[in-house]
Amino acid sequence: MRLPRATWPPVFTTERPGAAATARKAAPDAGASPQKAPPPVDLAGRQQARDQIIAPTPPAGGKGGGAGTGKSTSRRAYQPRADVIRNGLRACSRGILQVGAFSVVINILMLTVPLYLFQLSDRVLTSRSIDTLAMLSIIAVGALTLLVLLDALRRFVLTRIAVQLESLLGAPVMSAALRSADVGATRDIQALRDLQQVRSFINGPVMLVMFDAPMAPLYFLAVFLIHPALGIIATGAGVVLFGIAVLNERMTAKEYGVAGNFAMRANIQASAQARNAQVIGAMGMLEEAILLWGRENAASMKAQVHANDRNIYLASVSRYVRLVTQIGILGWGAYLAVQGSVTGGMMIAASLIASRALAPIEGAIDGWRGFVQAKSAYRRVRSLLDMPANDTERMLLPKPEGRVQADKLLYIPPGTRRTVLNGVSFTLEAGDSLAVIGPSGGGKSTLARMLVGCIAPTAGSVRLDFMDLRNWDRRQLGESIGYLPQDIELFPGTIKANIARMREDATDEEIAKAAALAGVHEMISGFQDGYETEIAVDGSPLSGGQKQQIALARAFFGEPRLIVLDEPNANLDTMGERALAAALARARRQGITVVLVTQRPAVLQSVSKILILREGQVAAFGERDQILPRLMAQTQDEALAAARAPGVPAQPQA
Fold first, then answer.
1. Structural domains in the chain (count)
2. Same structural domain, 473 and 361
3. C-alpha distances in angstroms, 335 versus 338, 341, 344, 347, 581?
4. pLDDT, tens digit, for every residue of 106-120?
5. pLDDT in tens, 199-244
6. Closest Cα partner for 311 from 262, 360, 254?
7. Which Gene3D superfamilies does this one have (predicted)?
8. What is the pTM of this model?
9. 3-state SS record for 617-654
């Protein structure tokens, strides 16, 4: 079975939409001057690259207009996330049919040994014919050879089906998991492990049992043909085993589900503690960390032990039933042989065929745990992909200039009644720089995440160049935005790769330009390996401030038109703050719109506008020269009031 072209590596192609990158390589200095307008965007090239990410295929020449022409481009059919599983299963249907056909032939060939013993007992031993023995042996060996080859072939096909399914679902599941994690649903990262579990199940022995089980009636029919009484014994045993299987499902499915949920929560705890290993070690929190993880893990093991115990009991009963059935068939067959109704060979053949008929049912009971876990994993993957998402294909727009408009933003986190933002409105022209200040818990970081499209407002809208962020193509929007979150996370890899946003097509000129614009080139040059310095999972060898500066350069990469910085100077020293102020000045000269969330007044001189946010509402918004004096006067009044009230600490305002 051949794999489709959309295999795993191409799914995660990092080709950057457009011919714009090629143009920059050919002329790296184009557009560098702040006096020049941004170069036009090749929408056709962007769309073609975007289609390759959705459904990788060999490149076919694209058509379409340039930036701002309004002409539609040639597009492939867009595949919504809700259709991903259906289309993935449809793509694997041919392989599944092949495995089914192989299973039919294999189960027919499984009658070779019983028929061979039957012929030896009733024909060869009575006729004493060496020629008959030789011919029967050659036929039996040939049939068994074909059986082994077909069994190996169906295992190969199942392996490729499993890989194909994961290659088709991997990127959509990763995308859905990251989008869910972006709004706080970190449990959905488990979907990646769930997908691997589904693949392991398809590639495992229980899947073969499920293909063999429908052939059980063939074996029961063969036993009936030998003698009806033996067929009744075998069929009765099959009914009993089927009842045990149903009872096993009802007694263990719930417990296995509970065990899986607790195991997932334990994995989340372990991942969180691994990220905070230094804090745990420094503050002596090791015992508490182990206790938090241990509670979830112990609950998972307890439920799993209960389910395993029940499964073991029922599996033992099923094995007992099968063995007793064989004894019963042999005993009753011997009685029938004494009566002259069957021969000795028919008795042995009936016993072997009945055992083969009951084996898939017994195997299903033994492997029920794997089936239940794979079923739960599949349901979690499906529920993740079925979540409402903004899957509508968006037209590729001209490169934005950077005009930002927030209109009556309201945000109530899902599952809560707390209003984080309420009626927030402001407008920024291209090249404006805004400082968002206010007390902690006022909604500043939430506003920052909303401005870059990480979360959607409950009501209201955020517009970039008059277009709602939800109506921008997500990748095009991401290329036009730089974002520095409050919690800095760098990817394992080189400093160069992190600044380039992990894009393989990034040029050295683009990376150096972003580093120079952020003012970190000199800092990077201090490392022995420079831009090739490897960053570990924990961010070493970088300090907190250095990580923040690298992340700042990443935000400036690719000539974004809107940059949102959340507490960019939280870990910076005096030199770092000077570099930040210089970076903001350079961004302003290049016409880049900057939104800066800060608690420190040192950078307020670098912005053109100030917004004060209190309890999710705009307390003041305007030009810096108008807001800053009022802010300083208010701070002095509060300090004076605090001085007049001994014992009451002053509340500093940014």
1. 3
2. no
3. 5, 9, 10, 10, 99
4. 999 999 999 898 888
5. 888 888 888 888 888 888 889 999 999 899 999 999 999 999 888 8
6. 254
7. ABC transporter type 1, transmembrane domain, P-loop containing nucleotide triphosphate hydrolases
8. 0.64
9. EEEEEEEHHHHHHHHHHHHHHHHHHHHHCCCCCCCCCC
